[in-house]
Amino acid sequence: MKIVIIDYGAGNIQSIQFALQRLGYTAILSSDKNIIEQADKVIFPGVGEASSAMTKLKESGLDTVIPGLKQPVLGICLGMQLMCRYSEEGDTSGLGIFDVDVVKFSNKVKVPQIGWNQITDLKTPLFKDVEEKEYIYLVHSYYAPLCEETIAISDYELLYSSAMCKDNFWGVQFHPEKSSEVGERILKNFVTL
Amino acid sequence: MLTKRIIPCLDIKNGRTVKGINFVDLRDAGDPVELAQRYAKEGADELVFLDISATEEERKTLADLVKRVAEKVNIPFTVGGGISSVEDVSVLLYNGADKISINSSAVKNPDLINQLVAKFGSQCIVVAIDAKRINNTWKVHLVGGKVPTEIDLFDWAKEVEDRGAGEILFTSMDHDGTKNGFANEALAQLSETLNIPIIASGGAGNMDHFADTFSKGKADAALAASVFHFKEIEIRDLKNYLLERNIPMRL
Q1: 3-state DSSP helix/strand/coil % of chain B, to nearest 5
Q2: Percent of chain B beyond pLDDT 90?
Q3: Is the peptide bond before B148 cis (omega within 30 degrees of 0)?
Q4: How far is CA B28 from the centre of its chain?
Q5: What is the pTM of this model?
Q6: Which tens digits make up the pLDDT trace of A159-187?
Q7: CB B197 to CB A15 under 8 A?
Q8: Does ipTM top 0.90?
Q9: Which domains does chain B have, with CATH numbers?
Q10: Is the pLDDT of residue B211 over 70?
Q11: CATH architecture of A3-191
Protein backbone atom coordinates (compact mmCIF):
# COMPACT_ATOMS: atom_id res chain seq x y z
CA MET A 1 0.00 0.00 0.00
CA LYS A 2 1.57 3.25 -1.19
CA ILE A 3 -0.02 6.30 0.42
CA VAL A 4 1.19 9.70 -0.71
CA ILE A 5 0.35 12.97 1.03
CA ILE A 6 0.72 15.84 -1.41
CA ASP A 7 3.30 18.25 -0.02
CA TYR A 8 2.88 21.69 -1.55
CA GLY A 9 3.91 23.71 1.47
CA ALA A 10 0.39 24.21 2.80
CA GLY A 11 0.49 24.06 6.56
CA ASN A 12 0.09 21.15 8.89
CA ILE A 13 0.62 17.95 6.95
CA GLN A 14 2.80 15.93 9.28
CA SER A 15 -0.17 15.38 11.55
CA ILE A 16 -1.89 13.38 8.78
CA GLN A 17 1.24 11.29 8.37
CA PHE A 18 1.34 10.73 12.13
CA ALA A 19 -2.34 9.74 12.24
CA LEU A 20 -1.74 7.12 9.53
CA GLN A 21 1.31 5.96 11.46
CA ARG A 22 -0.87 5.41 14.54
CA LEU A 23 -3.10 3.24 12.33
CA GLY A 24 -0.09 1.23 11.18
CA TYR A 25 0.34 2.77 7.70
CA THR A 26 3.37 4.49 6.28
CA ALA A 27 2.66 7.52 4.13
CA ILE A 28 5.18 9.60 2.27
CA LEU A 29 5.09 13.33 1.61
CA SER A 30 5.74 14.31 -1.97
CA SER A 31 5.19 16.98 -4.58
CA ASP A 32 6.57 14.77 -7.36
CA LYS A 33 4.09 14.13 -10.17
CA ASN A 34 5.30 10.57 -10.84
CA ILE A 35 5.29 9.53 -7.19
CA ILE A 36 1.80 10.94 -6.73
CA GLU A 37 0.46 9.27 -9.87
CA GLN A 38 1.85 5.88 -8.85
CA ALA A 39 0.39 5.93 -5.33
CA ASP A 40 -2.46 3.61 -4.32
CA LYS A 41 -4.05 6.36 -2.25
CA VAL A 42 -3.50 10.10 -2.41
CA ILE A 43 -4.24 12.57 0.37
CA PHE A 44 -4.58 16.22 -0.57
CA PRO A 45 -4.27 18.25 2.64
CA GLY A 46 -4.52 21.93 3.27
CA VAL A 47 -4.44 24.37 6.10
CA GLY A 48 -4.30 28.00 5.22
CA GLU A 49 -5.60 30.48 2.75
CA ALA A 50 -7.17 29.40 -0.55
CA SER A 51 -5.55 31.75 -3.08
CA SER A 52 -1.99 31.32 -1.78
CA ALA A 53 -2.47 27.53 -1.63
CA MET A 54 -3.78 27.53 -5.20
CA THR A 55 -0.80 29.62 -6.33
CA LYS A 56 1.54 27.01 -4.82
CA LEU A 57 -0.33 24.22 -6.58
CA LYS A 58 0.02 26.03 -9.90
CA GLU A 59 3.72 26.74 -9.38
CA SER A 60 4.37 23.03 -9.01
CA GLY A 61 1.99 22.03 -11.81
CA LEU A 62 -0.11 19.99 -9.38
CA ASP A 63 -3.27 21.85 -10.39
CA THR A 64 -3.33 19.79 -13.58
CA VAL A 65 -2.06 16.54 -11.98
CA ILE A 66 -4.69 16.19 -9.23
CA PRO A 67 -7.87 16.28 -11.40
CA GLY A 68 -6.37 13.58 -13.63
CA LEU A 69 -5.68 11.08 -10.84
CA LYS A 70 -7.45 7.72 -11.12
CA GLN A 71 -6.86 6.23 -7.65
CA PRO A 72 -8.84 7.29 -4.53
CA VAL A 73 -7.97 10.88 -3.55
CA LEU A 74 -8.98 12.42 -0.23
CA GLY A 75 -9.01 16.20 0.12
CA ILE A 76 -8.96 17.44 3.69
CA CYS A 77 -10.26 20.85 4.84
CA LEU A 78 -8.78 23.42 2.43
CA GLY A 79 -7.83 20.49 0.19
CA MET A 80 -11.52 19.67 -0.16
CA GLN A 81 -12.37 23.32 -0.80
CA LEU A 82 -9.75 23.60 -3.54
CA MET A 83 -11.32 20.58 -5.23
CA CYS A 84 -14.47 22.66 -5.71
CA ARG A 85 -15.23 24.95 -8.67
CA TYR A 86 -14.52 28.23 -6.91
CA SER A 87 -13.84 29.73 -3.48
CA GLU A 88 -14.86 33.16 -2.26
CA GLU A 89 -11.68 33.15 -0.18
CA GLY A 90 -9.20 35.24 -2.18
CA ASP A 91 -11.51 35.00 -5.25
CA THR A 92 -9.94 31.65 -6.13
CA SER A 93 -10.68 29.36 -9.05
CA GLY A 94 -10.54 25.77 -7.83
CA LEU A 95 -9.80 22.44 -9.46
CA GLY A 96 -13.45 21.99 -10.46
CA ILE A 97 -13.84 18.38 -9.32
CA PHE A 98 -16.85 19.06 -7.11
CA ASP A 99 -19.49 21.10 -8.90
CA VAL A 100 -20.05 23.65 -6.13
CA ASP A 101 -18.76 27.07 -5.03
CA VAL A 102 -17.25 27.57 -1.57
CA VAL A 103 -18.68 30.54 0.33
CA LYS A 104 -18.16 32.23 3.71
CA PHE A 105 -20.35 31.77 6.79
CA SER A 106 -22.38 34.90 7.57
CA ASN A 107 -21.86 37.02 10.67
CA LYS A 108 -24.90 35.46 12.33
CA VAL A 109 -22.50 32.88 13.73
CA LYS A 110 -18.96 33.12 15.02
CA VAL A 111 -16.46 32.79 12.20
CA PRO A 112 -14.34 30.69 11.95
CA GLN A 113 -16.30 27.73 13.20
CA ILE A 114 -13.82 26.09 15.56
CA GLY A 115 -14.44 22.89 17.44
CA TRP A 116 -16.43 19.69 17.46
CA ASN A 117 -19.64 19.36 15.47
CA GLN A 118 -21.72 16.39 14.35
CA ILE A 119 -21.98 14.62 11.00
CA THR A 120 -25.27 13.21 9.72
CA ASP A 121 -26.79 11.66 6.58
CA LEU A 122 -23.65 9.61 6.11
CA LYS A 123 -23.20 7.92 2.74
CA THR A 124 -20.57 5.79 1.04
CA PRO A 125 -18.01 3.35 2.53
CA LEU A 126 -15.97 6.31 3.80
CA PHE A 127 -18.30 6.27 6.80
CA LYS A 128 -18.43 2.50 7.28
CA ASP A 129 -19.01 1.74 10.98
CA VAL A 130 -19.33 5.44 11.78
CA GLU A 131 -22.51 6.31 13.70
CA GLU A 132 -24.82 9.16 12.73
CA LYS A 133 -24.22 12.27 14.87
CA GLU A 134 -20.65 11.38 15.73
CA TYR A 135 -18.45 14.36 16.57
CA ILE A 136 -15.65 15.48 14.29
CA TYR A 137 -13.23 18.42 14.60
CA LEU A 138 -13.56 21.39 12.26
CA VAL A 139 -11.87 24.73 11.86
CA HIS A 140 -13.03 26.78 8.91
CA SER A 141 -14.58 30.07 7.81
CA TYR A 142 -15.75 28.94 4.38
CA TYR A 143 -18.01 26.01 3.51
CA ALA A 144 -19.32 24.05 0.55
CA PRO A 145 -23.13 24.25 0.33
CA LEU A 146 -25.16 21.04 0.03
CA CYS A 147 -24.93 19.59 -3.46
CA GLU A 148 -25.34 16.34 -5.38
CA GLU A 149 -21.91 15.21 -4.21
CA THR A 150 -22.64 15.67 -0.49
CA ILE A 151 -22.03 12.51 1.56
CA ALA A 152 -22.10 13.98 5.08
CA ILE A 153 -23.88 17.01 6.50
CA SER A 154 -23.01 19.32 9.39
CA ASP A 155 -25.11 22.14 10.85
CA TYR A 156 -23.65 25.57 11.57
CA GLU A 157 -25.96 28.49 10.75
CA LEU A 158 -27.25 26.20 8.00
CA LEU A 159 -26.75 22.67 6.71
CA TYR A 160 -23.63 22.32 4.59
CA SER A 161 -21.36 19.65 3.06
CA SER A 162 -19.12 18.14 5.69
CA ALA A 163 -17.95 15.59 3.12
CA MET A 164 -18.32 15.08 -0.64
CA CYS A 165 -17.61 12.35 -3.15
CA LYS A 166 -17.41 12.21 -6.94
CA ASP A 167 -16.03 9.14 -8.72
CA ASN A 168 -12.59 8.48 -7.16
CA PHE A 169 -12.46 11.87 -5.42
CA TRP A 170 -13.40 12.34 -1.76
CA GLY A 171 -13.33 15.44 0.33
CA VAL A 172 -13.89 16.11 4.03
CA GLN A 173 -14.24 19.55 5.58
CA PHE A 174 -13.29 18.22 9.00
CA HIS A 175 -9.88 17.00 10.13
CA PRO A 176 -10.02 13.20 10.46
CA GLU A 177 -6.43 13.24 11.73
CA LYS A 178 -7.59 15.37 14.67
CA SER A 179 -11.03 13.87 15.26
CA SER A 180 -10.05 11.30 17.85
CA GLU A 181 -11.16 7.67 17.30
CA VAL A 182 -13.96 8.64 14.88
CA GLY A 183 -11.48 10.39 12.62
CA GLU A 184 -9.13 7.45 12.72
CA ARG A 185 -11.98 5.18 11.66
CA ILE A 186 -12.71 7.44 8.66
CA LEU A 187 -9.03 7.58 7.67
CA LYS A 188 -8.84 3.82 7.92
CA ASN A 189 -11.95 3.52 5.74
CA PHE A 190 -10.34 5.70 3.10
CA VAL A 191 -7.09 3.77 3.11
CA THR A 192 -8.97 0.46 2.75
CA LEU A 193 -11.37 1.66 0.02
CA MET B 1 -24.49 21.33 16.92
CA LEU B 2 -21.10 22.87 17.64
CA THR B 3 -20.11 22.06 21.21
CA LYS B 4 -18.40 24.19 23.81
CA ARG B 5 -14.80 23.14 24.32
CA ILE B 6 -12.82 22.11 27.39
CA ILE B 7 -9.14 22.89 26.94
CA PRO B 8 -6.43 21.83 29.35
CA CYS B 9 -3.47 24.17 29.12
CA LEU B 10 0.04 22.92 29.53
CA ASP B 11 2.49 25.65 30.44
CA ILE B 12 5.89 24.55 29.22
CA LYS B 13 9.30 25.54 30.50
CA ASN B 14 12.44 23.68 29.46
CA GLY B 15 10.30 20.93 27.94
CA ARG B 16 8.35 20.29 31.16
CA THR B 17 4.82 21.21 32.25
CA VAL B 18 4.51 23.91 34.86
CA LYS B 19 1.71 26.02 36.29
CA GLY B 20 2.29 29.37 37.86
CA ILE B 21 0.23 30.81 40.67
CA ASN B 22 -0.43 34.31 39.34
CA PHE B 23 2.39 33.64 36.86
CA VAL B 24 5.07 33.37 39.58
CA ASP B 25 6.33 30.49 41.75
CA LEU B 26 6.16 27.59 39.29
CA ARG B 27 5.32 23.99 40.18
CA ASP B 28 6.26 20.93 38.10
CA ALA B 29 3.33 18.82 36.94
CA GLY B 30 4.78 16.29 34.54
CA ASP B 31 5.84 15.33 31.06
CA PRO B 32 3.94 17.26 28.35
CA VAL B 33 3.50 14.39 25.90
CA GLU B 34 2.30 11.95 28.54
CA LEU B 35 -0.07 14.51 29.99
CA ALA B 36 -1.39 15.41 26.53
CA GLN B 37 -2.18 11.77 25.76
CA ARG B 38 -3.93 11.39 29.09
CA TYR B 39 -6.10 14.45 28.44
CA ALA B 40 -6.99 13.29 24.92
CA LYS B 41 -8.11 9.93 26.30
CA GLU B 42 -10.14 11.57 29.07
CA GLY B 43 -12.13 13.64 26.56
CA ALA B 44 -10.34 16.97 26.29
CA ASP B 45 -11.51 18.77 23.15
CA GLU B 46 -8.26 20.52 22.46
CA LEU B 47 -4.95 21.29 24.11
CA VAL B 48 -2.93 24.46 24.45
CA PHE B 49 0.84 24.44 24.97
CA LEU B 50 2.25 27.74 26.14
CA ASP B 51 6.00 28.06 26.30
CA ILE B 52 6.00 30.54 29.17
CA SER B 53 9.74 31.03 29.20
CA ALA B 54 9.82 31.71 25.52
CA THR B 55 9.70 35.49 25.41
CA GLU B 56 12.70 35.65 27.70
CA GLU B 57 14.72 32.54 27.03
CA GLU B 58 15.82 30.32 24.23
CA ARG B 59 13.27 27.72 23.24
CA LYS B 60 14.89 25.56 20.66
CA THR B 61 13.16 22.41 21.96
CA LEU B 62 9.66 23.67 21.14
CA ALA B 63 9.48 22.44 17.54
CA ASP B 64 10.65 19.02 18.68
CA LEU B 65 8.05 18.92 21.45
CA VAL B 66 5.35 19.90 18.93
CA LYS B 67 6.38 17.03 16.70
CA ARG B 68 6.33 14.52 19.57
CA VAL B 69 2.87 15.69 20.60
CA ALA B 70 1.57 15.51 17.02
CA GLU B 71 2.86 11.95 16.75
CA LYS B 72 0.99 10.74 19.80
CA VAL B 73 -2.15 12.84 20.15
CA ASN B 74 -5.32 12.59 18.05
CA ILE B 75 -6.97 15.88 19.03
CA PRO B 76 -6.02 19.41 17.96
CA PHE B 77 -3.54 21.56 19.81
CA THR B 78 -2.40 25.16 19.83
CA VAL B 79 1.15 26.27 20.50
CA GLY B 80 2.11 29.66 21.86
CA GLY B 81 4.90 31.51 23.59
CA GLY B 82 7.59 33.65 22.06
CA ILE B 83 6.32 33.41 18.50
CA SER B 84 7.30 36.57 16.68
CA SER B 85 7.65 35.85 12.98
CA VAL B 86 6.13 34.15 9.97
CA GLU B 87 9.08 31.70 10.04
CA ASP B 88 8.38 30.71 13.68
CA VAL B 89 4.79 29.90 12.74
CA SER B 90 5.72 28.03 9.60
CA VAL B 91 8.01 25.69 11.58
CA LEU B 92 5.40 24.96 14.26
CA LEU B 93 2.58 24.29 11.78
CA TYR B 94 4.86 22.11 9.70
CA ASN B 95 5.74 20.04 12.76
CA GLY B 96 2.10 19.36 13.51
CA ALA B 97 0.63 22.27 15.48
CA ASP B 98 -2.97 22.96 14.44
CA LYS B 99 -3.01 26.55 15.61
CA ILE B 100 -0.49 28.96 16.98
CA SER B 101 -1.04 31.78 19.43
CA ILE B 102 0.77 35.08 19.60
CA ASN B 103 0.62 37.59 22.43
CA SER B 104 3.31 40.22 23.14
CA SER B 105 4.65 40.13 19.59
CA ALA B 106 1.21 41.05 18.22
CA VAL B 107 0.97 44.07 20.53
CA LYS B 108 4.46 45.23 19.58
CA ASN B 109 3.87 44.59 15.87
CA PRO B 110 0.12 44.35 15.13
CA ASP B 111 0.84 43.92 11.42
CA LEU B 112 2.21 40.45 12.26
CA ILE B 113 -1.42 39.31 12.65
CA ASN B 114 -2.22 40.40 9.09
CA GLN B 115 0.92 38.75 7.74
CA LEU B 116 0.15 35.45 9.44
CA VAL B 117 -3.47 35.50 8.35
CA ALA B 118 -2.49 36.22 4.76
CA LYS B 119 -0.07 33.31 4.73
CA PHE B 120 -1.77 30.67 6.86
CA GLY B 121 -5.43 31.71 7.08
CA SER B 122 -7.44 33.06 10.04
CA GLN B 123 -8.38 29.64 11.28
CA CYS B 124 -4.98 28.81 12.74
CA ILE B 125 -4.10 32.21 14.23
CA VAL B 126 -5.04 32.71 17.89
CA VAL B 127 -4.24 35.95 19.65
CA ALA B 128 -3.75 35.57 23.39
CA ILE B 129 -4.46 38.61 25.52
CA ASP B 130 -3.48 38.93 29.18
CA ALA B 131 -5.30 41.74 30.93
CA LYS B 132 -5.78 43.13 34.42
CA ARG B 133 -8.34 45.58 35.73
CA ILE B 134 -6.79 48.87 36.80
CA ASN B 135 -9.09 51.67 38.02
CA ASN B 136 -12.10 49.90 36.48
CA THR B 137 -10.62 49.54 33.01
CA TRP B 138 -9.05 46.41 31.63
CA LYS B 139 -5.44 47.01 30.56
CA VAL B 140 -3.47 44.66 28.32
CA HIS B 141 -0.27 43.25 29.87
CA LEU B 142 2.76 41.82 28.10
CA VAL B 143 5.52 39.25 28.59
CA GLY B 144 3.47 36.71 30.55
CA GLY B 145 1.65 39.49 32.36
CA LYS B 146 4.75 41.18 33.69
CA VAL B 147 4.64 44.41 31.71
CA PRO B 148 1.55 46.67 31.90
CA THR B 149 0.48 48.79 28.92
CA GLU B 150 -2.03 51.59 28.46
CA ILE B 151 -3.92 49.56 25.86
CA ASP B 152 -7.58 48.87 26.59
CA LEU B 153 -8.59 45.20 26.39
CA PHE B 154 -11.72 45.76 24.31
CA ASP B 155 -10.06 48.14 21.85
CA TRP B 156 -7.24 45.69 21.34
CA ALA B 157 -9.56 42.70 21.00
CA LYS B 158 -11.52 44.52 18.30
CA GLU B 159 -8.34 45.40 16.44
CA VAL B 160 -7.19 41.78 16.67
CA GLU B 161 -10.45 40.65 15.08
CA ASP B 162 -10.28 43.33 12.38
CA ARG B 163 -6.76 42.23 11.50
CA GLY B 164 -8.07 38.75 10.86
CA ALA B 165 -7.25 36.61 13.91
CA GLY B 166 -9.39 33.48 14.14
CA GLU B 167 -9.75 33.27 17.88
CA ILE B 168 -8.99 35.14 21.11
CA LEU B 169 -7.60 33.52 24.23
CA PHE B 170 -8.36 35.94 27.04
CA THR B 171 -6.63 35.49 30.39
CA SER B 172 -7.72 37.63 33.29
CA MET B 173 -4.66 38.13 35.46
CA ASP B 174 -6.93 39.15 38.31
CA HIS B 175 -8.51 35.71 38.22
CA ASP B 176 -5.62 33.51 37.12
CA GLY B 177 -4.49 31.18 39.89
CA THR B 178 -7.23 32.31 42.30
CA LYS B 179 -9.66 29.40 41.62
CA ASN B 180 -12.54 31.83 42.19
CA GLY B 181 -14.09 31.64 38.73
CA PHE B 182 -13.52 33.21 35.31
CA ALA B 183 -13.83 36.93 34.44
CA ASN B 184 -17.35 36.41 33.09
CA GLU B 185 -18.38 40.03 32.75
CA ALA B 186 -15.40 40.93 30.55
CA LEU B 187 -15.79 37.64 28.66
CA ALA B 188 -19.46 38.31 27.88
CA GLN B 189 -18.57 41.78 26.64
CA LEU B 190 -15.90 40.31 24.36
CA SER B 191 -18.24 37.64 23.08
CA GLU B 192 -21.05 40.11 22.37
CA THR B 193 -18.93 42.69 20.61
CA LEU B 194 -16.76 40.33 18.57
CA ASN B 195 -17.65 37.68 16.00
CA ILE B 196 -14.76 35.27 16.55
CA PRO B 197 -14.61 32.51 19.19
CA ILE B 198 -13.43 33.48 22.67
CA ILE B 199 -11.51 31.12 24.96
CA ALA B 200 -11.89 31.91 28.66
CA SER B 201 -8.80 31.50 30.79
CA GLY B 202 -7.88 32.18 34.38
CA GLY B 203 -9.77 31.33 37.55
CA ALA B 204 -11.16 27.80 37.14
CA GLY B 205 -11.59 26.21 40.57
CA ASN B 206 -14.73 24.07 40.40
CA MET B 207 -17.27 22.74 37.88
CA ASP B 208 -19.71 25.60 38.46
CA HIS B 209 -17.07 28.03 37.28
CA PHE B 210 -17.08 26.28 33.89
CA ALA B 211 -20.88 26.30 33.71
CA ASP B 212 -20.87 30.02 34.53
CA THR B 213 -18.27 30.96 31.96
CA PHE B 214 -20.29 29.25 29.22
CA SER B 215 -23.68 30.65 30.30
CA LYS B 216 -22.86 34.04 31.88
CA GLY B 217 -19.50 34.60 30.20
CA LYS B 218 -20.78 33.35 26.80
CA ALA B 219 -17.37 31.79 26.19
CA ASP B 220 -16.90 29.34 23.32
CA ALA B 221 -14.23 27.38 25.15
CA ALA B 222 -12.77 27.27 28.65
CA LEU B 223 -9.14 26.72 29.42
CA ALA B 224 -7.64 25.58 32.70
CA ALA B 225 -4.44 24.02 33.95
CA SER B 226 -3.95 23.15 37.59
CA VAL B 227 -7.46 21.79 38.28
CA PHE B 228 -6.77 19.21 35.57
CA HIS B 229 -3.07 18.62 36.25
CA PHE B 230 -3.64 17.88 39.90
CA LYS B 231 -6.84 15.91 39.20
CA GLU B 232 -9.03 18.23 41.23
CA ILE B 233 -11.52 18.01 38.35
CA GLU B 234 -11.81 14.99 36.01
CA ILE B 235 -12.61 16.09 32.45
CA ARG B 236 -15.20 13.30 31.98
CA ASP B 237 -17.05 14.32 35.17
CA LEU B 238 -16.91 17.96 34.17
CA LYS B 239 -18.40 17.27 30.73
CA ASN B 240 -21.22 15.19 32.19
CA TYR B 241 -21.93 17.92 34.70
CA LEU B 242 -22.11 20.57 31.95
CA LEU B 243 -24.26 18.37 29.69
CA GLU B 244 -26.78 17.99 32.53
CA ARG B 245 -26.96 21.79 32.53
CA ASN B 246 -27.74 21.82 28.80
CA ILE B 247 -24.35 23.05 27.71
CA PRO B 248 -23.46 21.24 24.47
CA MET B 249 -20.51 18.93 25.04
CA ARG B 250 -18.82 16.12 23.13
CA LEU B 251 -18.68 12.93 25.16
Answers
A1: 35, 25, 35
A2: 72
A3: no
A4: 19
A5: 0.93
A6: 999 999 999 999 999 999 999 999 999 99
A7: no
A8: yes
A9: 5-244 (3.20.20.70)
A10: yes
A11: 3-Layer(aba) Sandwich (3.40)
